[in-house]
Amino acid sequence: MSEEVTYADLKFQDSSKIEHVQKFDQVGIKVHLTSKREMGKLKKLQNFKEELQKNVSLQLMYNMDLCKKIRNISTTLQELATKLCYELYRREPEHKCKPCPKEWMWHEDSCYKLFHNYDTWQNSGMTCSAHNASLLKIRNKSILEFIKSQKLYNYWLGLSPRKGYATYKNLDETLISSDWFTRNTSDLNDGKYCGFIGSIEYVYYASCTSPKHSVCEKLANPVKIESTLMDEELDGRI
């Protein structure tokens, strides 16, 4: 009788183990299936991320190309407005589209003003500074021809003062001169010589304390596209 009980107990215990193993296997299968589904979701997310990055890159490239086109159009409009304004300026020197202050002449990207009062080289430079400008420097042929057209006489230039007297120079020879980089501006009363336009063709030197006229230059403001085009449209010219 005791042996049968023992056998029954053993059988019951084995049955419990089998059931436990079966449950574990089922859990393992569920875990495997869940992991497989999660991996699928992860792969889809990865694909979505890659597609999104691709679209963002394409959009950035498109935006950069669009910005470049807009810059080119803006540059073209600015050039057209400047040319149009310059033609208007030639007809009417004080046209409101002019990018220079009143009574200043406009040439390319700079403004010029003649001061007819007599003063020393240093004081003339201070007069220019008071107008956010500097004494004229002739550094290219375009400016040279413009200045020649003004037929100036006895106007200080922004040449660096010299210690000793120098003979005259042809204006054309000064274009690449290092003398345009002004220096040695202290102690001008101590026998220094400064350059000035003595005729249409030549630069001369005289004592920096001598009284002469002055010509100042400064950068022109950008031509305002809207005002230039609107003025012409209202006038019925375009």
Question: Could you characterize the architecture of this molecule?
Answer:
The chain folds into 2 domains: 1-99; 105-219, Mannose-Binding Protein A, subunit A (Mannose-Binding Protein A, Chain A, Roll). 50% of the residues lie in helices and 16% in strands. The protein has helices at residues 2-91, 121-130, 141-150, 225-234, and strands at 105-107, 110-119, 134-135, 155-156, 169-170, 193-197, 202-207, 212-219. With 238 residues, the chain is of the alpha+beta class. The chain is built from 4 helices and 8 strands; from the N terminus they run αββαβαβββββα.
Write the layout of secondary structure elements.
Layout: H1 2-91, E1 105-107, E2 110-119, H2 121-130, E3 134-135, H3 141-150, E4 155-156, E5 169-170, E6 193-197, E7 202-207, E8 212-219, H4 225-234
Parallel strand pairs: 4-8
Antiparallel strand pairs: 1-2, 2-8, 3-8, 4-6, 5-7, 6-7
**Distance separating the two termini:** 123 Å
Give the averaged pLDDT, no decimals. Answer: 81
Output the helix-strand order. HEEHEHEEEEEH
CATH class of the largest domain: Alpha Beta
The share of residues in helices is 40-55%
Structural class: alpha+beta
Percent of residues in β-strands = 15-25%
- What is the CA-atom radius of gyration, in angstroms? 43 Å
Characterize this entry briefly:
This protein is α+β, with helices and mostly antiparallel strands and 238 residues long. The protein has four helices and eight strands. It has helices spanning 2-91, 121-130, 141-150, 225-234, and strands spanning 105-107, 110-119, 134-135, 155-156, 169-170, 193-197, 202-207, 212-219.
